[in-house]
Amino acid sequence: MAFLIFNAISILLVVLFTSSNADFNQYYYPLWGLNHLTVNPQGTELTSAPDYQNPGNHFELDYEFLGTNGTVQTNVYDNDGGHREQSFKLWFNPSQDFHTYEILWNPHQIVFYVDKIPIREFNNNKVRGVDYPSRPMHIEASLWNANWAGVVDWSQAPFIAHYQDFNFNACPAQSNTVSQCSSDRYFWNKQTKLNAAQKQQMQQYRKSYMSYDYCSKSATSKPECAWNN
């Protein structure tokens, strides 16, 4: 098993544009590892090989695919080093076809979706002393060999990740705050919480497919565990 991490910080983010069926070259650009990625001539698909940089303490929302065993790990960096992992053994083989992985981020909540199914909710509990993402963010993706995930079997190389549909909805960020993006005129701000049907669906999928939850152990639990699912 090759324990490489496909790290997709895929955010309905607070920068730049509203994009549908985006051309990668129009809205994105490489930050590093230029020799490890290719984009097809139409700009509709990106192929990436291993590369990674450590950004330090920051806000971040993650999808991380652990090797090829069908496990996706979600993580939240809340102006710190993260360690809010919740992992799911997916109900499909993610290496066989493209699937949709989305993150809703608004002033009320962060929701992780897989194929439109909510699997994780992180609520804004700033009034209770829990920090909450409040700065502009960007979308970033990489492929890297994380020591904590296990030993890489390099005999199985090359390791390739494929991306399609680089879509996002966002408002322009004009300073180091996202307060200007909290208006109800943006559709993503109108959802303040999951409805009853979404809650039930999320609970069902978490019960069936969640394999790890940082909130389940006192050694890894954090204050927000009392109010987040």
Automatic annotation (TrEMBL):
Record keyword Nucleus present: no
Domain annotation GH16: ranges: 1-163
Keywords: Glycosidase, Hydrolase, Signal
SUPFAM superfamilies hit by this protein: Concanavalin A-like lectins/glucanases (SSF49899)
Gene3D superfamilies from the UniProt entry: 2.60.120.200
Signal sequence, start to end: 1-22
An MF annotation (GO) of this entry: hydrolase activity, acting on glycosyl bonds
Top-level taxonomic group: Eukaryota
Record-linked InterPro entries: Beta-glucanase-like, Beta-glucanase/XTH, ConA-like_dom_sf, XTH
Active site (catalytic residues): 60 (nucleophile), 64 (proton donor)
Entry keyword annotation includes Thylakoid: no
Protein name in UniProt: Xyloglucan endotransglucosylase/hydrolase protein 2
Species the sequence originates in: Forsythia ovata
